[in-house]
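::Encoded backbone::
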Amino acid sequence: MVIYHAETLPHSNKIVLPPRPLSWDRANIMTTIGHDLTPLEHGGGLRAAARRYGTPAEGWLDLSTGINPNGWPLPHAIDPKLWQRLPEREDGLEEAAAECYGLPHPPLPLAGSQAAIQALARLRPTGETACLAPLYGEHPHAWLQSGHPLHLPTTVAEVERLLDRLDTLVVVNPNNPTGGALEPDQLLAWADHLSRRNGVLVVDEAFMDATPERSVAPHAHRRGLVVLRSLGKFFGLAGARVGFAAGDSEIITRLAHHLGPWTVSGPARHIAHQALEDRAWQASTRPKLHAASQRLATLLTSTGLHPDGGTALFQWLRSDAARGIQERLARQGILVRAFDAPSSLRFGLPPGHDAAWHRLEKALREHA
């Protein structure tokens, strides 16, 4: 098992993804995580794409983020007083989140789960850390930046062999970008094992809302378990910057003290509260997303791009021509996310109207 240290890694801002979703060649997980101050690559970035390709930002079909393109319907107006007053804890947001996610206790609101990703790495004592790869690149980046020796296990078996050595294990479930998922019982067993030696399991459930039955959130009372949730993906509220951390009470208390008061703005709390309580919208949205994701998988397959994994919000596939496909689509105003090793692509869902789907299909077939 290779251990990476921040001071020994070359300057790079990408995580290398493995060539297969369940079993990978170690050579494909070589020194790939940035340790300098260069921002990591993310989806979105329409203004940069507009400058590069000459297509106005409003003319793009953005499939690069995995965000629900038909998100929770925003109210037409927000009480102006919410902009004028400091945010208040007693507005019911934490309780609404606990009920929505099935949490045993109210969670800690965050300015997106990204706030916890960075802070947890700073708060934990320096120790051996593992991130089940591949995964959202901000996780390993944060632990390396904070000086933790980092393992990148690529299979369940490799994680099992490491457990007795680890202080922290990070798992993105369902996985971003592959869409693979681990069973809750597997994750809870790891959390219990780690907690016996004061270790912690961090489970990032940013893409879990479409499959809530697979969440470990109802078990967030367990020692050694931290669960992160986000309103950015399923609810389509990425711009509100609202997320939550729940779990081990000692860790959550330290995280709250570290982040300080007013982590989420008053208007964002108001919007998040309403969205979390809208169970009818949530229930009707889940089957729509699953159907749209299947439609996307079928479309990609019909044009010779066979998905290797996915969730209700995206499809992921390997292709030796990934960067070329990304470039050709960008020249037609369609933005997708490309990864380099292995050469692969992630396609988010088009908006619900047929024109977007037809535009994607036409572009794909022109280059099939």
User: Anything to note?
Assistant: The first strand starts at residue 3 and ends at 4.
